[in-house]
Specification:
Elements: H1 7-33, H2 38-59, H3 73-76, H4 82-109, H5 111-133, H6 140-181, H7 192-200, H8 217-226, H9 236-262, H10 277-301, H11 312-317, H12 322-346, H13 348-351, H14 357-369, H15 377-399
Length: about 400
């Protein structure tokens, strides 16, 4: 099998993983904003996510000759390594629950803030666990100040979400009042009845314009009409609660994978080789796939957050955006695989630097979704503080990279 051994190779894996893991959430967010049910999207996504693990296992995991110390992927399938397999599968379950939760959190909190909060929680808890599991091969005097910066970024992210929600509420209130007092500039070619209907139907989200600009109340209402998850009028607590739950799930999958590949607790029998990254990633992805299938099929018939009911038949016939969901699954699968390959070489604590993915997601959020347009100065100040602290945290975390012997 192919093994990443150099520190430079590990950092290259992390950087490519960062790009992939920061891009796939934007694709799923785009589909939700276009009205595709998240249950349909996630079922598509999880199929290709497993496919990516299989491709990695049968390529990198089969390169070269197999040995007792470094068996190839297929050889490990028949070994007595079930303690490590169970740890890998536990990590996959944690990741699947986290990804499923973020799919709903993106609608409430926004792509950028969701990614910053979940990534920061992942680092604060997960990186600390990985540092001790990796026998302290990372530089503690650098690593833990970086973890502290991530914790500050969480606080900034929560404040940004609350301030952004207040800005949007003010926009909608002003928009409603303008229709009521007649201060909206009206187009003479549009009948009074049309304007009256817009004002009357504002509360249920039916008032729209043909070309609403990013960040305006009209844009928010038009988006609410199209999207699958309705969020206007919902409290900020729901979005933050889902986001923090996802962050806790994400913080556990990497330490579980670490134990699966390095057997720090000596659960394997004498003479049994440690589970390779590729075999561990295969079992990890299988459990991720199974839990996603079970939960999303149940959500088709018993949806959450007032989503409409669906069925397996409706899912199979829904090809609107399916290829994008498939692409998102591949990007996430290869991104996770590269993260683990780099972590096995440089330490999983340093590999958590890929949690810089919100920097990529923020770029997509601003470019594709018009996030952070026409907001208050307070929100912009908090946003700059959040991203600045995040950049510092990621740089410090990557500088703490060690080398596994």
């Amino acid at each position: 099998m192919y093994v990443v051994e150099s520190k430079g190779g590990a950092i290259a894996c992390m950087l490519l993983s960062l790009l992939l893991l920061g891009t796939w959430p934007a694709i799923l967010t785009l589909l939700e904003r276009r009205g595709r049910l998240p249950q349909h999207t996630y079922l598509d996504y999880t199929i290709t996510n497993l496919l990516a693990a299989l491709i990695i296992a049968f390529t990198f995991g089969e390169i070269g000759t197999s040995s007792i110390d470094k068996p190839n992927f297929i050889n490990q399938l028949t070994q007595d390594n079930w303690p490590s397999v169970l740890f890998a599968m536990t990590g996959g379950i944690a990741l699947s629950l986290g990804n499923l939760a973020t799919q709903y959190a993106w609608a409430f909190v926004g792509l950028s803030v969701t990614e910053v909060i979940t990534s920061s929680i992942t680092v604060v808890i997960g990186t600390t666990l990985n540092y001790f599991l990796d026998d302290k091969i990372n530089k503690a005097e650098i690593l833990f100040p970086g973890v502290g910066c991530f914790l500050i970024a969480v606080c900034f992210g929560s404040a940004v979400h609350s301030s952004n929600a207040a800005d949007n509420k003010a926009k909608l209130t002003s928009f409603s009042n303008d229709y009521e007092d007649g201060s909206v500039i009206k187009d003479e070619s549009v009948s009074e009845e049309t304007y009256a209907n817009k004002a009357e139907n504002l509360e249920n989200g039916t008032a729209t314009k043909e070309k609403a600009k990013f960040g305006t109340a009209d844009f928010l209402i038009k988006l609410e009409n199209k999207r699958a998850i309705k969020v206007l009028g919902k409290g900020t607590f729901i979005g933050l609660a889902i986001t923090f739950f996802a962050g806790v799930c994400f913080s556990l999958f990497s330490p579980a994978f670490n134990v699966a590949t390095n057997d720090q607790w000596h659960k394997l029998k004498d003479g049994v080789a440690h589970l390779s990254v590729y075999a561990a990633f295969f079992y990890f992805s299988v459990s991720c796939f199974l839990i996603a299938i079970i939960l999303n099929i149940s959500f088709l018939y018993r949806p959450v957050l007032n989503l409409p009911k669906s069925s397996l038949k409706a899912y199979v016939s829904d090809w609107n955006g399916r290829r994008w969901a498939f692409l998102a699954g591949l990007l996430c699968g290869f991104g996770n695989g590269l993260q683990f390959m780099g972590g096995q070489a440089a330490g999983y604590a340093a590999a958590d630097a890929v949690q810089a993915l919100p920097l990529v997601s923020t770029f997509w959020g601003v470019l594709l979704f018009g996030e952070y347009r026409r907001l208050s100065r307070r929100t912009y100040v908090l946003l700059v503080g959040m991203l600045s602290m995040f950049i510092v945290a990621v740089s410090v975390l990557m500088a703490s990279s060690g080398h596994r012997k």
